[in-house]
UniProtKB/TrEMBL annotation:
GO MF: 4 iron, 4 sulfur cluster binding; metal ion binding; oxidoreductase activity, acting on NAD(P)H; quinone binding
Annotated GO CC locations: membrane
UniProt keyword terms in alphabetical order: 4Fe-4S, Cell membrane, Iron, Iron-sulfur, Membrane, Metal-binding, NAD, Quinone, Repeat, Translocase, Ubiquinone
Organism annotation: Desulfurobacterium thermolithotrophum (strain DSM 11699 / BSA)
Identification of the protein by name: NADH-ubiquinone oxidoreductase 23 kDa subunit
Coiled coil: none
Annotated Pfam families: Fer4_7
Domain 4Fe-4S ferredoxin-type span(s) in chain numbering: 34-63, 68-98
InterPro entries in UniProt: 4Fe4S_Fe-S-bd, 4Fe4S_Fe_S_CS, NADH_quinone_OxRdtase_chainI
Gene3D superfamilies noted in UniProt: 3.30.70.3270
Keyword Iron-sulfur in annotation: yes
Alphabetized SUPFAM superfamilies for the sequence: 4Fe-4S ferredoxins
Amino acid sequence: MKDMFIESLKNLFKKPATHQYPFEPSPPPPNYRGNIVYKKELCIFCTKCELVCPPGAIRFTYNEDGSREFHYNPYLCIYCGECVRACPKAGCLIQVEEMAPPATEEEIPNWDEIEKEAEESKKRWLKARKKPQAKKS
């Protein structure tokens, strides 16, 4: 009993073995692959990142004017980095040592709707491209 009391007193003055999480951020683990950052101005819209993404966290929607929009779900992403490796344009997709911020239910995108819209818009876009063009006289 005496030994336990002495050990308890020693522990009162020792540095804690754990991180003080709310006050100190946890350090990233070794070989941490962080959040994906997309730079629209560098994108050539080749859609290679969408094709190689294992969980399907990247989707492109096709607009009626032929332009495309990039959609990324950081809460679905497994941070494997395949999209970064597949991107032919350097700097368009990069990984940074930041985690996705915690989100409330309202902030999380409705990914099911985005996926559905991406599939439908791609079908419309492909159908419009296949239409035979009128020959010029």
